[in-house]
Structures are given as structure tokens and as C-alpha cells.
Specification:
CATH superfamily of the largest domain: P-loop containing nucleotide triphosphate hydrolases
Number of strands: 24
Structural class: alpha/beta
Number of helices: 15
CATH architecture of the largest domain: 3-Layer(aba) Sandwich
CATH topology of the largest domain: Rossmann fold
Strand content: 25-35%
Strand order of the largest sheet: 2-9-1-10-11-12
Largest sheet: 6 strands, parallel
Shape: globular
């Protein structure tokens, strides 16, 4: 059985979704399938079953496929760092912060790591579905493309193109990507999936005919746009969420600072019709919210400065609404954050909101762990990913209208898990009807 690469004709075309969709369909045929992404650039991470840190997209894909999570699914993860630096996570562990140019210069050192991870999955599963990144035909970077070109060439994968019709220019993007691919990879293209079509699908019948007859590329399906409020990988996918709330729903505001992270924490709130969720990006009155949440942050000091610059820092200090801090947001609640090792900021310290009478100390060895937690009178399965530590409140704090914790997944419960499974199953069923499964399967055997 051949492995599959999912190439996008650009960024944010739905590669992550199509990856789990194709993988789930093959799994349901009785095969063992694993998702894979050689290199992911995302501030949203999860703690895998093996204790490693991987991108949320690969974690979510593995959940859909009901397989153990491991760094092999995402051996290279890049997160935002100071200035032009990026935080490099290899095999689930932080290595160092690197300048982008330095990262590309040392890329050949990462290829054996990516190859080893892929081969490990290949030995354990019948099929690996490898998600690409951005466009595979950035001509000036093709020799540095780990997720698309390297994997497809090294392992001779079959390739499915994904194009987003909602963006416009769908014909040019398909034609351009297909014809700019190296000859070997071009010959391995099974066909193209047209994604995010709004309205009557038959209106694109002429388009399908053009792609197949003039471009000579099989169209594997035209997929309708269906709202899917799960597995948010980036801010672009987050801002497209849709919520159906009751008229008397509890109003919850989430402060969405520039490097907000782990917004998957809020998927259960979006799914709850008794909650009306709003992401706050400007200086507005917070008193109208029943609760305000300080979300996770990749660069806590930078986001704390942003709060001060836009005026939300003072709003938070004066509001009578309940305030909850999660991970980076929790750290902002302390008197100050001390970073003498300069892990996240140039300064030695920065003043916090002062809600909690203690200090946060940044340590080099990042805390990455998961388990069962008892917090705020509830028990749940959560995880921690943070450099900051508190001596007096190492896990959580609660007093009056202020509470906070280092632990993610606070709102996840059995009701949400049932909703999640039902939503995934319905989504896969609906999309499966629009795909040429026979053609895909014939090409991977």
C-alpha cells in the first residue's frame, strides 16, 4: 500500500482537515493509518502520550484515527520566539531558539530526523497520510521544503492536491502548482480536491470538466463548506468559528492577544449553546461579560505589553467581572514575571496584573506533562506546557472573582467528547459522499 501526501495549492486551504478525512476513510476500510507532518509552524501544541510536545493538528488527527500520539507524528515543531527567532522543538523536546536564516542553513541536519520518524510510522501502519505545508512550489525554497517536496520525493508518495475555491483563482492555483511540480512528483498526483465550495455544487460542473479535460487532472471531489469548530490550528481557522447561542447565554470574553496560543481550550465553550463566546482584540468595556479569560500565550511578556498598550491591562484591573487565566494568561496575573535567563524576553522582569501575590520565575527546562487534575472542584484530564513556575501557587489559584491555572483542557468533559465524536463522524460521512474514494484507493494499492 502506498503512502499519501496532501499538498495544498496555498496556505489555509484545508490540508489538515483533508488529511484526517482521507486517513479516516482509509481506516474505516480496515487499515491502520497514521497522520504525519514533518515540520509544523504553530503556537498551538499538545502533550502527546509519550510526553512529547507536538502540534495540535497532528494530535487531533491521531485522536480521529484513535491511535497513540507521539512525536513521530510531528518531529519538527516551530513556535514564535523573540524578534526574528523561532523556538525549535525536535522529537517533542525544545532544542533552542534559532534565527530563521540559521534554521534554513542547518536544515540538512533535520532531514535524517524527519526520515527516521516517517520510517517508524511506516513500519507500524499500513498507510501514512503526510500533510504538507503552505504551497509545495515556492521555487526559491523547494530545496528546503521538508513537509512537501522532501517527503514526497524521498518516499515516493502518491499526492492529492487541495485547492480552496473560497479564496478565488482556483483554476490558476491548480494549474500553477501541478505544472511547477518536479516531473517525478507530478506523475504521482492522483488528483485534486476542490475544498470549501458554498452553494449548489452542480454550479461547478463546468469547472470540473475544465480541470479534467484541459488540465488533465482528475477531480477527486468538490467538498461543500461545512462549519467545523474543532481542531483549530491557527488564528485564521479560529476567526471563522460559528456559534449558535441561546438568548440568555452566559457571555464569556477571551482576550485574543497577538501570540495567543492553545485556543483549542475554548472549543467546548463554542460548542455550548448556553455560552456566547467573544474574542476581544481592542480596548472595550469588560463589565458586560460574565467572565473574561486570559488565554495561553507563546510570548507572555510581549502579550502583557500589548495589554498595557491597548488599554486592556487597566480594564482588567478595574472590572468586576470574573477573570480566569490559563497558562500564559495565568502567569500574567502575578505581581511580576522574572526572566533572568532571557528565555522569552530581553528584560529581566516585567510587572504583571498583581492579582496574585507571588512571582513567576521562567526556567530553561520547559514543563511538559499531562495527567489527571483536580482543580476548581472538578477532575479532568489536562496537560501543561510552560516555562514559568510559581513557588506558592504551582498549579492553580482561586480567590473571589480571580482564578487561574497552568493546566489546559479545563473545559473538556464527557459531554464535549461525545459532541466531538458525533461532529467528526457526521463531517466524515457528509464529505465521504462527495469524494471519489474508488479512485483514491485504486491509486494507493
Amino acid at each position: 500500500m502506498r503512502n499519501i501526501s496532501i499538498f495544498g495549492t496555498g496556505s489555509n486551504v484545508g490540508k489538515s482537515t483533508i488529511t484526517f478525512l482521507i486517513a479516516k476513510i482509509i481506516k474505516d476500510l480496515g487499515y491502520k493509518v497514521a497522520p504525519f507532518k514533518a515540520q509544523n509552524l504553530s503556537n498551538n501544541a499538545m502533550v502527546a502520550d509519550d510526553g512529547s510536545e507536538i502540534a495540535v493538528a497532528q494530535y487531533f488527527q491521531a485522536e480521529v484515527l484513535e491511535i497513540p500520539t507521539t512525536y513521530h507524528l510531528n518531529p519538527i515543531l516551530l513556535k514564535s520566539g523573540q524578534k526574528n527567532l523561532t523556538s525549535l522543538i525536535v522529537n517533542g523536546k525544545v532544542v533552542k531558539d534559532k534565527d530563521v536564516r540559521e534554521y534554513y542553513r542547518d536544515l540538512d541536519e533535520l532531514k535524517p530526523i524527519v526520515k527516521e520518524a516517517f520510517l517508524e510510522l511506516n513500519s507500524r501502519y499500513d498507510c501514512v497520510v503526510a500533510e504538507g505545508a503552505g504551497s509545495p512550489v515556492e521555487l526559491n525554497l523547494m530545496d528546503k521544503d521538508l513537509s512537501n517536496i522532501f517527503i514526497a520525493d524521498e518516499f515516493n508518495t502518491k499526492i492529492i492536491l487541495v485547492a480552496d475555491i473560497e479564496k478565488g483563482g482556483v483554476f490558476a492555483s491548480i494549474w500553477g502548482v501541478y505544472n511547477l511540480l518536479p516531473k517525478k512528483l507530478k506523475e504521482n498526483v492522483i488528483g485534486v480536491v476542490i475544498n470549501k465550495f458554498r452553494g449548489d455544487l452542480t454550479l461547478f460542473n463546468r469547472g470540473v470538466s475544465i480541470i479534467e479535460s484541459e488540465f488533465k487532472i482528475p477531480v477527486l471531489g468538490v467538498l461543500p463548506y461545512i462549519q467545523f469548530n474543532l481542531g483549530f490550528e491557527d488564528s485564521q481557522s479560529l476567526i471563522n468559528y460559528k456559534q449558535n447561542s441561546n438568548i440568555n447565554a452566559k457571555r464569556v470574553g477571551v482576550i485574543a492577544y497577538p501570540t495567543m496560543s492553545n485556543y483549542n481550550d475554548f472549543e467546548p465553550l463554542i460548542a455550548n449553546s448556553n455560552i456566547s463566546l467573544e474574542f476581544i482584540t481592542s480596548n472595550i468595556n469588560l463589565d458586560s461579560f460574565d467572565e473574561v479569560i486570559l488565554a495561553g500565550s507563546k510570548l507572555v511578556a510581549k502579550d502583557l505589553k500589548w495589554l498595557k498598550e491597548v488599554g486592556l491591562f487597566d480594564r482588567l484591573k478595574s472590572t468586576k467581572s470574573k477573570i480566569l487565566g490559563i497558562c500564559g494568561g495565568y502567569e500574567m496575573m502575578f505581581n511580576r514575571i522574572i526572566d533572568s535567563e532571557h528565555i522569552e524576553m530581553e528584560e529581566d522582569y516585567i510587572e504583571g496584573l498583581g492579582f496574585i501575590d507571588d512571582e513567576i520565575i521562567f526556567i530553561k527546562n520547559k514543563i511538559v506533562k499531562s495527567g489527571e487534575y483536580n482543580i476548581f472542584g472538578k477532575r479532568f484530564k489536562g496537560f501543561e506546557i510552560h516555562h514559568g513556575v510559581s513557588k506558592n501557587y504551582p498549579l492553580y489559584y482561586e480567590n473571589g472573582n480571580i482564578r487561574g491555572t497552568f493546566v489546559h483542557n479545563l473545559f473538556h468533559n464527557n459531554t464535549f467528547q461525545q459532541y466531538k465524536r458525533r461532529t467528526i463522524d457526521n463531517f466524515v460521512y457528509s464529505m465521504k459522499q462527495k469524494l471519489d474514494i474508488k479512485r483514491i484507493i485504486e491509486n494507493v494499492f
